[in-house]
Design goal:
Blueprint (H helix, E strand, L loop, with lengths): L1 E6 L2 E3 L5 E9 L5 E8 L6 E6 L5 E3 L7 E5 L5 E6 L8 E9 L13 E2 L3 E5 L1
Parallel strand pairs: 2-11
Antiparallel strand pairs: 1-3, 3-8, 4-5, 4-9, 5-6, 7-8, 9-10, 9-11
């Protein structure tokens, strides 16, 4: 069983930066690929950034050039750095994990494990 815990959300002004961290507890190892999703009211969870095989990194066009997904120290922790934030970055950010490879890595239904989410507000 894998448990994911996010932290680092809050309020940030447009143009600022935020850093979210997700710590995985339990049976997490290098077989898992992890990603970040954002959800706004009335919408499904939408992909933001994700690891692929061999720690390749992938971003959706809306954040490419502004986002960095990285390992945060131990193999079981990942961070999302988002710079030059915009109001449309507002939402609840979720960390997700599943066994690699994750086909269609930005499709939320392809991930089994989820954190509880952390709110980010850009205004």
């Amino acid at each position: 069983h894998v448990q994911l815990v996010e932290s680092g959300g809050g309020s940030v002004q447009p143009g600022g930066s935020l850093r979210l961290t997700c710590v995985a507890r339990g049976a997490m190892d290098s077989r898992y690929c992890m990603g970040w999703f954002r959800q706004v009211p009335g919408n499904d969870r939408a992909g933001v950034a994700a690891f692929g095989r061999e720690d390749s990194t992938h971003y959706v066009p809306a954040v490419k050039g502004r986002a960095t997904i990285s390992r945060a120290g131990a193999k079981n922790a990942v961070s999302l750095q988002l710079d030059n934030v915009k109001p449309e970055d507002t939402g609840v950010y979720y960390c997700a994990a599943d066994i690699c490879p994750v086909i269609q890595r930005f499709l939320s239904t392809n991930y089994v494990y989820w954190g509880q989410g952390t709110q980010v507000t850009v205004s």
